[in-house]
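This part of the workshop introduces the protein records we will be handling. Getting from the letters to the tokens is the skill we practise here. The record below serves as our worked example for the rest of this section.

…
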Amino acid sequence: MHAAIAWQLAAAGDARWPWILLAAFVAGKFLLVTSLRSEESLAGVGERAISGAPRMKGGSPSLLARLYHAPGNADLRLHVLLLAVASGWLGAELAFVAVYYNVRWIARYALVARRLAGRGA
């Protein structure tokens, strides 16, 4: 779907920026998936290197953690994509997923590196 959106935006505006956003989205998603697989391979038997979303005292994820993880929900992303198609905000949606996945993989790698440094100390 995102490739079709990039193609439509590039054809309509005779621009290259949709292709740059698509490349950023694909690279960010790939790096996030790679970081999640790396995390699983680094985890010990029966444990995960990263326990998941930060939790408040009561045990439920904090509001910030829920907002951070919300775009990771495929149903939510599909609804946002459909809303972008209906409203004509295709460029904004493509930019959002490109930025989101790149921020997410950078945060994930930093978190894993911090946890690994804590283990080695």
Summary: The chain has a mean pLDDT of 80.
